[in-house]
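Why should sequence recovery work at all? Because a backbone constrains its sequence more than one might expect. Tight turns favour small or flexible residues, buried strands favour hydrophobic ones, and helices have their own preferences. The token representation captures these environments compactly. In the example below, the structure is given first.
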């Protein structure tokens, strides 16, 4: 497995800038968070090993994700994508109540 401190995710931006186009992550870590972080650095394609049992023979099963971990991995990427959406510089509709009720209240 690749330790998190060796993932070098900022390199994804360098590759995207140098080559253009789409970049991806071949993730050989044991983390369920790296896909979300990689999305923040520009990755849009993700390769992650999946297994039904980490104790099965074969070297890839040791760092592969089991079902609930894979679900978490995908949800983290989806969350990163959703959180990174730009909705403009103005206030959002969900902020309107706070603006109406609390703006100017403390000074």
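From this structural description, the recovered sequence reads:
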């Amino acid at each position: 497995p690749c330790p998190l401190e060796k993932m070098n995710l900022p390199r994804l931006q360098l590759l995207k800038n140098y080559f253009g186009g789409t970049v991806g992550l071949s993730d050989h870590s044991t983390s369920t968070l790296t896909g979300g972080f990689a999305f923040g650095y520009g990755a849009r394609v993700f390769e992650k090993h999946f297994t039904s049992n980490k104790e099965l023979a074969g070297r890839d099963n040791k760092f592969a994700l089991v079902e609930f971990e894979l679900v978490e991995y995908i949800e983290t990427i989806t969350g990163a994508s959703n959180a990174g959406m730009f909705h403009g510089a103005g206030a959002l509709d969900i902020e309107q109540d706070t603006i109406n009720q609390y703006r100017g209240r403390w000074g």
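A few observations help interpret the result. The helical segments are 11-19, 34-40, 67-83, 96-102.
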